[in-house]
Amino acid sequence: MIWDPRSLPSQAGRTIIVTGGSTGIGYWVAEQVAGAGARVIIAARYAPKAAEAMASIRSHVPGADVTHVPFDLTSIASVRETAAAIADLGGADVLVNNAGLVFPPPRRTTTEDGLELLVGGNFVGHFALTALLFPLLRDRVVGLGSYATKMVRVDPDDLMSERTYRPFRAYAFSKHAVHGFALELDRRLRAAGDARRSLLAHPGYAVNELSEKRQGVIIESRWWLRLGGPLTAPVGQGKDHGAWPVVRAAVDPDADSGEFYGPRDMFGLRGTPVVGPPAPSSASTEFGAHLWSLAERWSGVEFVV
After folding, report:
1. Does residue 210 fall inside a structural domain?
2. Which of the pair, 107 or 269, is modelled with greater confidence?
3. 3-class SS at 134?
4. For residues 164 and 298, what is the distance between their CA atoms, to the nearest angstrom?
5. Does residue 78 lie within any of the structural domains?
6. Which structural domain range is residue 172 located in?
7. Is the per-residue pLDDT at 227 higher than 60?
């Protein structure tokens, strides 16, 4: 089947949670699935930004059903509150674990739970949210991966960068963990005979400067990105198109658990979404089992499938 990201299957009657849905890729995921008829729950930290995002969605999707719940992925206490709020809303069909820290600090920083900021937020916070919501999740989970994992090999014994901290290394480690979790969840679902799905997606090279404009929603880029953004058009795309692989992973009825969606072009930077391979080092069964055990300990949340 040829997938058309501009003509999505109806999502009427379905609820989709998008963490970090108030800006960036997450905003476009929320707008696009709302346009297909989904009820959207934006889980985001800042209420004013979430309000702007919801207003923008409603202006572009008349009658959109969209709501906000507070969510801070760097705080397990906040994650528990988010899960409780979503439970009160009746759970969901799809959880898109999109929120994340992209620009790591120059020096090692920790969350309020004492975890390295990138792995603690991008991975452990979403692991805990997924575990807490799983009894109320009806269809699938989508993790946001990255091709940064192809540039940095993971060190399973130093995921928290306690021995060595380098900013990009920490970011890549967080994405290795996202990959490892999604693929391990897929294996556990299959072993349990559970029909729910765990998938991955990555946006390719997606920048604000090539996106459609959404007043008050898209964060203003640094000046050099505003100047250079249009020059990346031959190899990049807007974040509206970067959302396409994530949306396909979230709503394609024929998507198989364990698949990893990304842009079509040979470098995985731009284009319509297709299935591609994750980095082998984060896809191994040994890494997945090791990671799951660590995540339960770090988060204090048991996740039984």
Report:
1. no
2. 107
3. helix
4. 19
5. yes
6. 15-204+238-299
7. no
Tell me if residue 171 is catalytic: yes
Q: Are 87 and 79 spatial neighbours (Cβ–Cβ below 8 Å)?
A: no
Residue 226 forms part of a structural domain: no
C-alpha span between 189 and 260 (Å, rounded) = 16
In the chain, the amino acid numbered 8 is: L
Which are the contacts of 249, defined by CB distance < 8 A and separation ≥ 6? Answer: 140, 142, 199, 200, 201, 255, 259, 261, 273
pTM equals: 0.94
Total residues belonging to the chain? 305
Residues 6 or more apart in contact with residue 244 via CB below 8 angstroms:
5, 32, 263, 272, 273
Distance between terminal CA atoms of the chain? 31
Average pLDDT over residues 219-228: 52
Q: Which of 147, 165, 171, 261 is catalytic?
A: 171
Separate counts of helices (H) and strands (E) for the chain: 11, 10
95 forms beta bridges with 17, 141
For residue 262, give both structure tokens.
């990304």
Where residue 224 falls among pLDDT bands split at 50, 70, 90? very low
- pLDDT higher for 220 or 285? 285
**Structure confidence by residue, pLDDT tens digits, 251-291:** 999 999 999 999 988 677 888 999 998 888 788 999 999 99
